[in-house]
Amino acid sequence: xxxxxxxxxxxxxxxxxxxxxxxxxxxxxxxxxxxxxxxxxxxxxxxxxxxxxxxxxxxxxxxxxxxxxxxxxxxxxxxxxxxxxxxxxxxxxxxxxxxxxxxxxxxxxxxxxxxxxxxxxxxxxxxxxxxxxxxxxxxxxxxxxxxxxxxxxxxxxxxxxxxxxxxxxxxxxxxxxxxxxxxxxxxxxxxxxxxxxxxxxxxxxxxxxxxxxxxxxxxxxxxxxxxxxxxxxxxxxxxxxxxxxxxxxxxxxxxxxxxxxxxxxxxxxxxxxxxxxxxxxxxxxxxxxxxxxxxxxxxxxxxxxxxxxxxxxxxxxxxxxxxxxxxxxxxxxxxxxxxxxxxxxxxxxxxxxxxxxxxxxxxxxxxxxxxxxxxxxxxxxxxxxxxxxxxxxxxxxxxxxxxxxxxxxxxxxxxxxxxxxxxxxxxxxxxxxxxxxxxxxxxxxxxxxxxxxxxxxxxxxxxxxxxxxxxxxxxxxxxxxxxxxxxxxxxxxxxxxxxxxxxxxxxxxx
Length: 510
Ligand code: NAD
Description:
With 510 residues, the protein is an alpha/beta fold. It has helices spanning 64-81, 86-102, 104-115, 119-140, 175-188, 203-214, 229-237, 250-262, 285-297, 317-329, 349-364, 402-405, 421-428, 444-453, 489-492; strands at residues 28-30, 33-35, 45-49, 54-59, 147-149, 155-162, 165-169, 192-196, 222-224, 241-247, 267-270, 276-279, 309-313, 368-371, 375-376, 388-389, 392-395, 412-418, 433-434, 436-440, 458-461, 476-477, 480-481, 494-501.
């Protein structure tokens, strides 16, 4: 399955010759094999390497015929998989996790080539995917119902049953991790899945599906179809699809919900954020600065939960700003395949331009650029066509500015000053979104008091952007519905059946 990397790929800083993936293979995967979309009129989509700007592979978006085939394969696998015991499913999943671990480097490198993030972060993403599969494999054998004693020896019991064919639709910022975070709980519950990655980053989801097949999963258990909105709509509206789990933007999330509502299908929505990070005057400033950097610059700032509205108490503002700017200027930008790089390339040229235009808009609206915010051209000629920018810290921000209101999804931190806890809370909660929030303080009572009042699904005290797979993750307000990770995700990928058992005679009124 893993073949030599396509020769068209940029020779990377490391040797990619062993354990790499053939990116010339079709990127669709169903019924245990890779497939080309077979429509005559089909136009191939180009996939870019953000680090260099060159096209490194192409794919054909799936139409109705391909979506039908993938759903049919998933239906067939569901027949076998849902009848297996949790322990039997766990065995296959643990083997898939082992295979992910054994191909960690190849998958991480492929993710870097397709997404532009640093190899250091890509390895952590692969680890998170593997841990998620292991976690839900561990839960698969524990799924159980309840027994309820009724009068006269009669009783009832509940069964936790799978939903059927689930659809996963992913964003481009964590391509492999999102595919794993969606499929692992779904499969643990006995469902099968058809996953559609973002057309911007289509490559690694197919690798995950292949690894499940290699691990002994029934053919069609995890399938991958490629395409954009049209393919996604076909999946959401497909009559044989029981549930849609989506990660992406708020506008698309609304459309997904509307389409799913036509079939009264449950949805999980992991949407955007504009999260606040509150740094109080009694914080450990060194840690608060590190937290603010983690809250803004991971994955070139393309993280849904980023704490991009950094509220700093006025008493520590000068010290905080000095330190945050110093550290931001020291971030090494460049070839994401190099071990020393901490910031790679943004995902695409249009996205880079959009992020840079947010910086221009911020300047026009009166924010001060404390550092960064410019397009960056690496000295290495191979990287000149890549989509780089210098990480940006904006000062003198106010709540009305576009940079403070809208999700930028790039390495742009907006720093705001506050004077009181009450004021900070009011301003932090003044958003239609509510994915995450953070608090830095040494006062344990303040930390919990503030967190209780923050309207966000994932809150951090004295840290930021930590996502262990055993902890639920998801948003309040327009940031989403449902949760991923943790035990609770089981409830979003299964349904409860109640069974009444009469041990006596029927006491009929008629
Ligand atoms: P997007 O909404 O443009 O696309 C996401 C996915 O939806 C893609 O696979 C796309 O092809 C598909 N899609 C688009 N239109 C569709 C339609 N009409 N029907 C079905 N599918 C459709 O988002 P993006 O630009 O890929 O990702 C960035 C966004 O994702 C940001 O807003 C970010 O905050 C959010 N995000 C959220 C989380 C989270 O866990 N909350 C995680 C990562 C990203």
